[in-house]
């Protein structure tokens, strides 16, 4: 298990527990009381730390290398997943995965960003940063779902759309804009969940949902804290201050009415318990599907347009 900098007190205590457990194996349980005492201290310390997280610390948790990714959630919450490939224009973008599946017997089209665990996988998936063909693949799958009246689930986890020259040459901005226009008019329910990082157009390019949720330790913003710091202060050194000002965490966006709710994670983060995290996501999906399936096609479209049209503040000047 990899520990973040603010988790070091926990790491030290858990290291001591492991040492005592190894000694206890040869001392007939003499140290069991001490081990139990240390475990209680760890639980108390973890509760204290994770009940007072800063915005930057939540950003760090959203990026944790052990955090469950889209394919992990698909494996845990769906049955009969059939991955669909390619945009029918250029190629198959591995940074976005999607396909048909069942969740408790209900057919869904599930689409999401996919990062990699090791160096090879990260290169293969480009750290979850999609090229235009990734968004065009998502476009194709969503229209396919609409054709067969199948609800759509999107899972967001990306540091942004791929910024390479070849992506711009193939129409990155156009692909994202086309997705936004298409998603606004979809006649099937669309449920969006931020499971990690939700950065800029790279995230919203598959994220215009009737209902939008964020997991507890995730972030969703037009810009990352590092990039914001770089623009305002010409250095990354003020990323923590930038994170605080951006108000990019789940509680912030719930208060601002940008999202519909926050999905609680296991204590310590989703990476601590994949099963519990997946069950929380599954429960929210099923609850949302139950509500949205009752709405007629035009009502779904109207609700989605009204939702995004009402965000922000403006004044009409005569």
Could you walk me through the main structural features you see in this protein, from its secondary elements to its overall organization?
By secondary structure, the protein is α/β, with parallel strands linked by helices. It folds into two domains: 5-52; 59-309, 2-enoyl-CoA Hydratase, Chain A, domain 1, CATH 3.90.226. Helices cover 48% and strands 15% of the residues. The protein has helices at residues 8-24, 32-50, 55-62, 70-77, 119-125, 132-147, 165-169, 172-184, 200-204, 225-233, 239-246, 250-255, 274-292, 297-309; strands at residues 79-83, 96-103, 106-113, 152-158, 190-199, 211-215, 219-221, 261-263. Strands 1, 2, 3, 4, 5, 6, 7 and 8 form an eight-stranded mixed sheet that branches. The model has no long low-confidence stretch (mean pLDDT 94).
What fraction of residues sit in β-strands? Answer: 15-25%
Instruction: Give the number of domains.
Output: 2
Helix content: 40-55%
Which CATH architecture of the largest domain? Alpha-Beta Complex
- What class do helices, strands and sheet pairing give? alpha/beta
Q: How would you characterize the largest beta sheet?
A: 8 strands, mixed
CATH level-4 homologous superfamily of the largest domain? 2-enoyl-CoA Hydratase, Chain A, domain 1
- Poorly predicted parts: none
- Beta strand count: 8
- CATH classification class of the largest domain: Alpha Beta
Approximate shape: globular
Helix/strand order, N-terminal first: HHHHEEEHHEHHEHEEHHHEHH
* Rg (CA only): 21 Å
Please tell me the overall pLDDT: 94
Helix count, DSSP H or I runs of 4 or more residues: 14
Looking at the structure, the CATH topology of the largest domain is: 2-enoyl-CoA Hydratase, Chain A, domain 1
| Distance linking N and C termini | 60 Å
């Amino acid at each position: 298990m990899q520990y973040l900098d603010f988790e070091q007190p926990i790491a030290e205590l858990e290291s001591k527990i492991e040492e005592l457990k190894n000694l206890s194996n040869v001392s007939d349980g003499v140290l069991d009381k001490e081990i139990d005492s240390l475990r209680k201290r760890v639980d108390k310390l973890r509760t204290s730390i994770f009940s007072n997280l800063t915005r930057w610390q939540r950003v760090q948790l959203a990026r944790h290398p052990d955090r469950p990714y889209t394919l992990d959630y698909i494996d845990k919450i769906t049955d009969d997943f059939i991955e669909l490939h390619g945009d029918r224009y250029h190629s198959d973008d591995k940074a976005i995965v999607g396909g048909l599946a069942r969740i408790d017997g209900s057919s869904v089209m599930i689409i999401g960003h996919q990062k990699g665990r090791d160096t090879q996988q990260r290169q293969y998936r480009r750290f979850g940063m999609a090229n235009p063909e990734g968004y065009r693949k998502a476009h194709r799958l969503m229209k396919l779902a609409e054709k067969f009246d199948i609800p759509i689930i999107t899972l967001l986890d990306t540091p942004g759309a791929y910024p390479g020259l070849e992506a711009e040459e193939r129409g990155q901005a156009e692909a994202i804009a086309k997705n936004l226009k298409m998603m606004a008019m979809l006649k099937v329910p669309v449920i969006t969940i931020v499971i990690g990082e939700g950065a800029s157009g790279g995230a919203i390019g598959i994220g215009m949902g009737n209902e939008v949720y964020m997991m507890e330790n995730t972030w969703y913003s037009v810009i990352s804290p590092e990039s914001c710091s770089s623009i305002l202060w010409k250095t990354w050194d003020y990323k923590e201050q930038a994170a605080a000002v951006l108000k990019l965490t789940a509680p912030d966006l719930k208060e601002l009415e940008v999202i519909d709710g926050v999905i609680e994670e296991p204590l310590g983060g989703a990476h601590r318990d994949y099963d519990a995290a997946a069950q929380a996501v599954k429960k929210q999906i099923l609850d949302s599907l139950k509500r949205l399936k009752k709405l007629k096609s035009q009502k779904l479209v109207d609700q989605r347009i009204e939702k995004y049209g009402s965000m922000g503040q403006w004044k009409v000047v005569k």
